[in-house]
Every structure is written in C-alpha cells, then in structure tokens.
Specification:
Layout lengths: L11 E4 L5 H7 L6 E4 L8 H11 L4 E4 L13 H14 L3 E5 L2 E4 L2 E7 L5 H18 L4 E3 L14 H12 L2 E5 H11 L3 H7 L5 E6 L3 E4 L5 E4 L8 H14 L4 E3 L8 H22 L1
Parallel strand pairs: 1-2, 1-12, 2-3, 3-4, 4-7, 7-8, 8-9, 9-12
Antiparallel strand pairs: 5-6, 10-11
Helix pairs in contact: 1-2, 4-5, 7-8, 8-9
Length: 285
C-alpha cells in the first residue's frame, strides 16, 4: 500500500473553488498546495476537471472527499470508489482524505457529515471499512474529525480516543481539523488542548483551518457552527499554534466554502499559516 507523500511538509494551501479557477490558473499564487472536494471532479471531462488539471501543473494536489460515508452501515459504494480510484490515477494527488462520519442510511444521503457513536462496535465497523477502502485504492487515506452539535448517550470513549484508535487499527492517517476541534469543544464543554495531546504525532498528515459562525440558542447560550464562511478566528489560530508545537509543520489547508472572498484573501490566510509554521520551526531549532 502506498503511503501519503511527505513532500508537502511545511506547506500551507487553500481550497480551490470554481469561482477562482481562472484567476488561480492565470496568477499561480504563492500557496504550497491546493485541495478540492473529490466528488466535484467525478465527471470524466468538462470545465472543473479541465481547470483542475491546469492548476495541478503548478501546485501539488490534495483530494478531500465528503461522500465516502465511512461510518454508515450501508455497503461501501463501488461506483464511488471506482471513480475515486480513477481520479487518483489521473491526478496523482499527494494526499487523499475523507471524514470520520456517516452521511447515508438505507441508500438515502443526508446533506451533512454526521458524528458517530464512540463505541467499540462502531470502532470495529469503521476500521474494517477503512481497510477495505485502502485495499481498493491501494494507498493510505486520511480521515478528518468532524464538528458536532450532539453527542450519543451510548458513547463509551471520547472522540479523540476513538479517532486515534481508528488510525492505530486501520493504518490510516489523520487529517486534524483544528477548527472542528474548537467548535466541538465549545459545543460539548471539553478542553481542546486535551484533544491535541491525545492524538499520536505519527498519524497526523494534514491540518485544516476554517471559520465558524456563532448561533444563539435558548437560555442565552450559543453554539458554534462550522460554516467555512469567515476568516479563521483568533482562538483557532492560537489552537493551531499549539498543534504545530505538538505535530510539527504538518501540511495545513485553509477551507472557505461559503461567502467566498477574493482569492488574495485566501492566499493571505495561507500565508499566515505558513508564517506560524516557520516560527514554530525556528523555535524548535
């Protein structure tokens, strides 16, 4: 089984969205890599794949899926895996990832990334499916922790223990979303640094950063929603610095999917991540 490339170490990238195709290809901005949602390129031609191939001529690629539904009890989708495999063969991405969640049941797909119950039964189920996916794709994948707004009473272990154990048992890597940790920590009342300390260093192959939205709820409280529609919050940058201290200059990606800003704003966010990585490296040395 092929392993994810380490060539992106120290790189900060941005998510490439259709609104920025032309400007990105023409300007080739100074970002370390690009990331796209795999399913948007499952078509075997057309404008999206055309521009992605052009972008890949100047920038390494990370493929980030949202439709694998690794935690579902539905059978793994062979058409999905087949097209993903073709895309990997065509584009030769440095990294391939999806989410530690479920998003379908009975063949019906939810427009969301839903959290799992953190039980031994769910753990064994996910591990077996990850192993099948990796055998099918002939390479290791990364799984990302999702933001959550509810918890299951059946859960027998914390999320960070579940995530780490999935990586240990299946051989997959971890895409650690620092914003999702911050959002879930606020919503469920745990300490985000505890999450970071519980994740073994060797499994973390990529980090995500994004913006969130505050939403008032009954009783004067508020929850945080992972909307990818705003700049990275100061508190998330602080948590990211702590992640760099623990995991080193892991490839880091700024996600922005709604209320998309001009491309230079995204490039500036990636530059900030890169500056923090350089500062960490200098301090560590």
């Amino acid at each position: 089984m092929d392993q994810p490339s380490r060539s992106l170490t120290g790189c900060a990238g941005i998510g490439l969205r259709s609104e920025h195709y032309v400007e990105f290809v023409e300007s080739r901005p100074p970002v370390g890599f690009i990331e796209v949602h795999s399913e948007n390129y499952f078509g075997r031609g057309g404008k999206p794949l055309h521009f992605l191939k052009l972008a890949c001529q100047s920038h390494p690629l990370s493929l980030h899926g949202v439709g694998l539904s690794i935690g579902s009890v539905d059978p793994l989708s062979e058409p999905h895996l087949a097209r993903l495999g073709e895309l990997i063969e065509t584009l030769e991405p440095a990294l391939v990832s999806d989410h530690l969640c479920w998003s379908s049941v009975g063949g019906i797909h939810a427009n969301d990334l839903l959290p799992l119950p953190f039980t031994e039964e769910a753990l064994s189920h996910v591990v077996s499916r990850v192993q099948r996916v990796q055998e099918r794709l002939r390479r290791r994948i990364l799984l990302e922790n999702v933001s959550s707004y509810m918890e299951y009473v059946q859960s027998a272990m914390p999320e960070w223990e579940f995530l780490a154990e999935v990586a240990r048992r299946s051989g997959c890597g971890i895409l650690l979303d620092v914003n999702n940790i911050f959002v879930s920590a606020h919503n469920h009342g745990f300490e985000p640094l505890r999450y970071l300390r519980a994740i073994p260093r060797q499994f973390v192959e990529e980090i995500h950063l994004a913006g969130f939205t505050r939403k008032p709820v009954d009783g004067g409280a508020e929850i945080l929603i992972d909307t990818h529609s705003a700049p990275v919050a100061d508190a998330v940058w602080t948590l990211y610095a702590a992640a760099l201290e623990r995991f080193g200059p892991v490839p880091s990606l700024v996600e922005w999917d709604a209320d998309l800003p001009p491309l230079p704003v995204l490039v500036a966010e990636a530059a900030k991540a890169r500056s923090l990585m350089e500062l960490h490296h200098a301090c560590a040395a």
